[in-house]
Protein backbone atom coordinates (compact mmCIF):
# COMPACT_ATOMS: atom_id res chain seq x y z
CA UNK A 1 0.00 0.00 0.00
CA UNK A 2 1.33 3.42 -0.93
CA UNK A 3 0.21 6.95 -0.22
CA UNK A 4 1.82 9.68 -2.30
CA UNK A 5 1.44 13.22 -0.97
CA UNK A 6 2.18 16.07 -3.39
CA UNK A 7 2.08 19.53 -1.81
CA UNK A 8 1.59 22.64 -3.98
CA UNK A 9 1.45 20.72 -7.27
CA UNK A 10 2.13 22.64 -10.48
CA UNK A 11 4.27 25.19 -8.63
CA UNK A 12 7.99 25.65 -8.04
CA UNK A 13 7.30 24.82 -4.36
CA UNK A 14 6.04 21.34 -5.19
CA UNK A 15 7.11 18.67 -2.69
CA UNK A 16 6.46 14.95 -2.91
CA UNK A 17 6.45 12.41 -0.07
CA UNK A 18 5.83 8.67 -0.31
CA UNK A 19 4.56 6.38 2.46
CA UNK A 20 4.73 2.67 1.60
CA UNK A 21 3.56 -0.21 3.79
CA UNK A 22 3.84 -3.91 3.06
CA UNK A 23 1.12 -5.87 4.83
CA UNK A 24 0.28 -9.53 5.28
CA UNK A 25 -3.42 -10.40 5.66
CA UNK A 26 -4.52 -13.65 7.30
CA UNK A 27 -8.08 -14.97 7.25
CA UNK A 28 -8.78 -16.36 10.73
CA UNK A 29 -12.15 -17.89 9.87
CA UNK A 30 -15.82 -16.95 9.89
CA UNK A 31 -18.13 -16.21 12.81
CA UNK A 32 -21.88 -15.54 12.60
CA UNK A 33 -21.63 -14.60 8.93
CA UNK A 34 -18.67 -12.26 9.40
CA UNK A 35 -15.01 -12.67 8.53
CA UNK A 36 -12.09 -12.44 10.95
CA UNK A 37 -8.77 -11.05 9.71
CA UNK A 38 -5.33 -10.50 11.16
CA UNK A 39 -3.48 -7.66 9.42
CA UNK A 40 0.26 -7.45 10.01
CA UNK A 41 2.32 -4.62 8.49
CA UNK A 42 5.78 -6.12 8.03
CA UNK A 43 7.64 -3.21 6.44
CA UNK A 44 7.47 0.59 6.30
CA UNK A 45 9.27 2.72 3.74
CA UNK A 46 8.74 6.45 4.22
CA UNK A 47 10.58 8.82 1.88
CA UNK A 48 11.02 11.40 4.66
CA UNK A 49 12.06 9.09 7.48
CA UNK A 50 15.49 10.76 7.48
CA UNK A 51 14.12 13.91 9.15
CA UNK A 52 12.49 14.53 12.53
CA UNK A 53 8.86 14.66 11.35
CA UNK A 54 9.28 11.61 9.13
CA UNK A 55 10.73 9.61 12.00
CA UNK A 56 7.92 10.81 14.25
CA UNK A 57 5.20 9.73 11.79
CA UNK A 58 6.88 6.35 11.35
CA UNK A 59 6.80 5.75 15.09
CA UNK A 60 3.11 6.67 15.14
CA UNK A 61 2.45 4.26 12.26
CA UNK A 62 3.81 1.36 14.30
CA UNK A 63 0.71 1.69 16.48
CA UNK A 64 -1.38 0.24 13.65
CA UNK A 65 1.01 -2.43 12.36
CA UNK A 66 -1.02 -5.26 13.93
CA UNK A 67 -4.81 -5.37 13.73
CA UNK A 68 -7.45 -7.98 14.40
CA UNK A 69 -10.64 -7.09 12.54
CA UNK A 70 -14.17 -8.31 12.01
CA UNK A 71 -15.33 -7.57 8.48
CA UNK A 72 -18.73 -7.99 6.78
CA UNK A 73 -19.29 -9.80 3.49
CA UNK A 74 -18.73 -6.61 1.48
CA UNK A 75 -15.41 -5.86 3.14
CA UNK A 76 -16.44 -3.17 5.63
CA UNK A 77 -14.74 -3.15 9.04
CA UNK A 78 -17.38 -3.53 11.74
CA UNK A 79 -15.23 -4.30 14.80
CA UNK A 80 -11.63 -3.89 15.97
CA UNK A 81 -11.03 -7.00 18.07
CA UNK A 82 -7.68 -5.98 19.60
CA UNK A 83 -8.74 -2.49 20.68
CA UNK A 84 -7.47 -2.96 24.26
CA UNK A 85 -4.10 -4.00 22.86
CA UNK A 86 -3.96 -0.85 20.69
CA UNK A 87 -4.84 1.41 23.61
CA UNK A 88 -2.15 -0.11 25.81
CA UNK A 89 0.38 0.05 23.01
CA UNK A 90 -0.42 3.70 22.37
CA UNK A 91 0.21 4.55 26.02
CA UNK A 92 3.71 3.10 25.70
CA UNK A 93 4.43 4.77 22.33
CA UNK A 94 3.11 8.15 23.50
CA UNK A 95 5.16 7.99 26.71
CA UNK A 96 8.32 7.25 24.75
CA UNK A 97 7.71 9.92 22.09
CA UNK A 98 6.79 12.60 24.65
CA UNK A 99 10.31 12.38 26.05
CA UNK A 100 11.80 13.79 22.85
CA UNK A 101 8.87 15.58 21.16
CA UNK A 102 7.35 18.71 22.71
CA UNK A 103 5.05 21.51 21.69
CA UNK A 104 1.43 22.36 20.89
CA UNK A 105 1.44 20.53 17.55
CA UNK A 106 2.61 17.31 19.19
CA UNK A 107 0.08 17.68 22.01
CA UNK A 108 -2.75 18.14 19.50
CA UNK A 109 -1.56 15.10 17.56
CA UNK A 110 -1.55 12.97 20.70
CA UNK A 111 -4.98 14.30 21.69
CA UNK A 112 -6.46 13.34 18.32
CA UNK A 113 -5.13 9.79 18.56
CA UNK A 114 -6.44 9.48 22.13
CA UNK A 115 -9.89 10.55 20.95
CA UNK A 116 -9.91 8.08 18.07
CA UNK A 117 -8.86 5.18 20.29
CA UNK A 118 -11.53 6.03 22.87
CA UNK A 119 -14.32 5.71 20.27
CA UNK A 120 -14.37 2.45 18.28
CA UNK A 121 -16.68 3.88 15.60
CA UNK A 122 -14.22 6.73 14.98
CA UNK A 123 -11.35 4.24 14.90
CA UNK A 124 -13.19 2.14 12.30
CA UNK A 125 -13.79 5.25 10.17
CA UNK A 126 -10.10 6.15 10.52
CA UNK A 127 -8.86 2.67 9.56
CA UNK A 128 -11.28 2.63 6.64
CA UNK A 129 -9.82 5.83 5.19
CA UNK A 130 -7.92 5.54 1.92
CA UNK A 131 -4.69 6.66 3.60
CA UNK A 132 -4.93 3.74 6.06
CA UNK A 133 -6.60 0.48 4.96
CA UNK A 134 -9.46 1.85 2.87
CA UNK A 135 -8.14 0.33 -0.34
CA UNK A 136 -8.19 -3.07 1.31
CA UNK A 137 -11.31 -2.97 3.49
CA UNK A 138 -13.40 -0.70 1.32
CA UNK A 139 -16.82 -2.33 0.99
CA UNK A 140 -15.90 -3.38 -2.54
CA UNK A 141 -14.08 -6.65 -1.94
CA UNK A 142 -16.55 -8.56 -4.08
CA UNK A 143 -17.04 -7.63 -7.71
CA UNK A 144 -20.55 -6.88 -9.01
CA UNK A 145 -22.14 -6.02 -12.34
CA UNK A 146 -24.53 -3.15 -11.54
CA UNK A 147 -23.76 0.51 -10.81
CA UNK A 148 -23.71 1.51 -7.14
CA UNK A 149 -23.53 4.72 -5.16
CA UNK A 150 -22.00 5.33 -1.74
CA UNK A 151 -21.23 8.35 0.40
CA UNK A 152 -17.66 9.57 0.72
CA UNK A 153 -16.41 10.86 4.12
CA UNK A 154 -15.45 14.04 2.22
CA UNK A 155 -19.14 14.81 1.62
CA UNK A 156 -19.68 13.83 -2.02
CA UNK A 157 -21.16 10.70 -3.59
CA UNK A 158 -18.93 8.04 -5.12
CA UNK A 159 -20.45 6.40 -8.20
CA UNK A 160 -19.03 2.90 -8.72
CA UNK A 161 -19.42 1.62 -12.28
CA UNK A 162 -18.36 -1.95 -13.19
CA UNK A 163 -16.63 -2.47 -16.55
CA UNK A 164 -16.19 -6.11 -17.60
CA UNK A 165 -13.59 -7.37 -20.08
CA UNK A 166 -13.11 -11.13 -20.21
CA UNK A 167 -12.50 -12.42 -16.69
CA UNK A 168 -11.48 -8.93 -15.49
CA UNK A 169 -13.91 -6.51 -13.84
CA UNK A 170 -12.79 -2.95 -13.20
CA UNK A 171 -14.83 -0.87 -10.79
CA UNK A 172 -14.47 2.73 -11.96
CA UNK A 173 -15.21 5.32 -9.25
CA UNK A 174 -16.30 8.83 -10.16
CA UNK A 175 -17.66 11.67 -7.98
CA UNK A 176 -21.08 13.29 -7.81
CA UNK A 177 -21.89 16.61 -6.07
CA UNK A 178 -18.21 17.46 -5.88
CA UNK A 179 -18.91 21.20 -6.11
CA UNK A 180 -20.54 21.08 -2.68
CA UNK A 181 -17.30 20.00 -1.01
CA UNK A 182 -13.72 21.20 -0.58
CA UNK A 183 -12.49 18.50 -2.99
CA UNK A 184 -11.33 19.73 -6.40
CA UNK A 185 -10.83 16.35 -8.08
CA UNK A 186 -11.46 12.68 -7.30
CA UNK A 187 -11.21 9.39 -9.17
CA UNK A 188 -10.51 5.75 -8.42
CA UNK A 189 -10.65 2.18 -9.63
CA UNK A 190 -10.50 -1.36 -8.28
CA UNK A 191 -9.51 -4.31 -10.46
CA UNK A 192 -10.77 -7.88 -10.02
CA UNK A 193 -9.54 -10.84 -12.07
CA UNK A 194 -11.47 -14.11 -11.90
CA UNK A 195 -13.37 -12.51 -8.98
CA UNK A 196 -10.13 -11.96 -6.99
CA UNK A 197 -9.18 -8.43 -5.93
CA UNK A 198 -5.86 -7.53 -7.60
CA UNK A 199 -5.23 -3.81 -7.24
CA UNK A 200 -6.81 -0.49 -6.33
CA UNK A 201 -6.14 3.20 -6.81
CA UNK A 202 -7.69 6.52 -5.79
CA UNK A 203 -6.57 10.11 -6.07
CA UNK A 204 -7.99 13.28 -4.57
CA UNK A 205 -7.00 16.93 -4.86
CA UNK A 206 -7.90 19.49 -2.20
CA UNK A 207 -6.29 22.38 -0.30
CA UNK A 208 -3.32 22.56 -2.73
CA UNK A 209 -2.54 18.92 -1.93
CA UNK A 210 -2.67 15.99 -4.33
CA UNK A 211 -3.09 12.57 -2.65
CA UNK A 212 -2.63 9.30 -4.50
CA UNK A 213 -3.42 6.02 -2.75
CA UNK A 214 -2.60 2.69 -4.38
CA UNK A 215 -2.63 -0.99 -3.45
CA UNK A 216 -1.17 -4.00 -5.24
CA UNK A 217 -2.20 -7.44 -4.04
CA UNK A 218 0.58 -10.01 -4.35
CA UNK A 219 -0.17 -13.66 -3.68
Structural category: alpha+beta
Query: What integer is the average pLDDT?
Result: 89
Please estimate the helix content. Answer: 10-25%
User: β content, as a range?
Assistant: 35-45%
Give the ordered list of helices and strands: EEEHEEHHHEEEEEE
- Uncertain residue segments: none
Fold and architecture overview:
With 219 residues, this protein is of the alpha+beta class. The protein contains four helices and eleven strands. The chain has helices spanning 52-61, 83-97, 104-118, 120-127, and strands spanning 2-7, 15-31, 34-46, 66-71, 77-80, 148-151, 157-165, 168-176, 183-193, 196-206, 209-216. A hairpin with a 2-residue loop joins strand 7 (157-165) and strand 8. The radius of gyration is 18 Å and the shape is globular. The relative contact order is 0.13.
